[in-house]
Amino acid sequence: CKGVTVYRDKSRDRQVLNIGKQQESTTECAAENKPSAGPRPRPEVTTGITRRVRTGCGNLYITINEDEFGPVEIFTQMGKAGGCAASQSEALSRLVSLALRSHIAPDAVVRELKGISCHRVVWQGSDRILSCADAIGKTLEWHTGNRPEGLPGPLEDPVPARAPEVFRDDDLQNHAGACPNCGGPLKYESGCVSCALNCGYSECG
Questions:
Q1: Which of 46, 141, 178, 204 is the most exposed place for a label (fewest CB within 10 A)?
Q2: Rg (CA), the chain
Q3: Is the pTM of the predicted complex or chain greater than 0.90?
Q4: Hey, how many other C-beta atoms are within 10 angstroms of the C-beta on 174?
Q5: Which helix (H) or strand (E) holds 77?
Q6: Cis omega before residue 152 (within 30°)?
C-alpha cells in the first residue's frame, strides 16, 4: 500500500514543484520584452526648410523640421484657401509627423503618399503634382535627397522652372485631372472646368 501526501503551494519552505512561480516569471519576462509604444518627444528646438508647391487647391507651403535623428515633423499652410483643403492638409501633416517621430522611415512615408491623385492636377516645372498628399510626399522625398549637412540653409530646386509650362495660380490646364463623378478626364474650357465625357459634371453649375 502506497500513500500520497499533497502539500498546499507555499505551505513549506522547500518544495519540488512550483507552477505559480514559473508562470509569474514567464509573465514578467514577456512584459520586459514588450516593445515600447508611442512617438519620441518633440525637441524644444528644431531646424528645417519651407518649400512652396503649387497644387490644384492653390499654393501649399510645406515646412519640414529635423532633430538629431532626421525629419521629425511637417507643417503645411494652404495659401489663401481654407475649408476642406486646409483642414485635410493639416490632418495629413499631423499624421506624417506622428509617423516620423515613431521611427517610421521617411522613404516609407514617401511611398504611401506619392501617386495619390485628386481631380485637379497641376504642373510645377517638369513635375506633375497630383494632389496635396502627393505634394507632401514629393517634398519629403526632395528634402531627404537634397538635405545639406548644415541646416538651416538655402536649398536649390533640382528642377529648373520652365515658365511656358507653368500656369497662373488661379488657372488649370486643358486637362485638369479626373472627374469626381465618373472618373473621366476633366477639361478647362471657356473659363470653366467640366467633364470631357459629358457626364454632367461642371464646376460652373
A1: 204
A2: 28
A3: no
A4: 10
A5: strand 70-78
A6: yes
Backbone angles phi, psi at 71, to 5 degrees: -55, 130
- Joined grid coordinates for residue 38: 508611442
> In this structure, what is the dihedral angle of CA atoms 38, 39, 40, 46, given to the nearest 10 degrees?
-160
Strand order in the sheet with 70-78: 47-55, 58-67, 70-78
Taking the C-alpha atoms of residue 24 and residue 150, their distance in angstroms, rounded to an integer, is: 51
Q: Residue range 68-80: average pLDDT?
A: 87
Q: Exposed e or buried b for every residue in 18-42, given b needs 16+ CB within 10 A?
A: eeeeeeeeeeeeeeeeeeeeeeeee
Count of other CB atoms within 10 angstroms of residue 141: 17
DSSP letter assigned to residue 159:
S
Pick from 61, 91, 93, 95: nearest CA to 78 = 61
Instruction: Encode burial over 176-202: b for 16+ CB neighbours within 10 A, e otherwise.
Output: bbbbeeeeebbbbeeeebbbbeeeebe
CA distance 17 to 14: 9
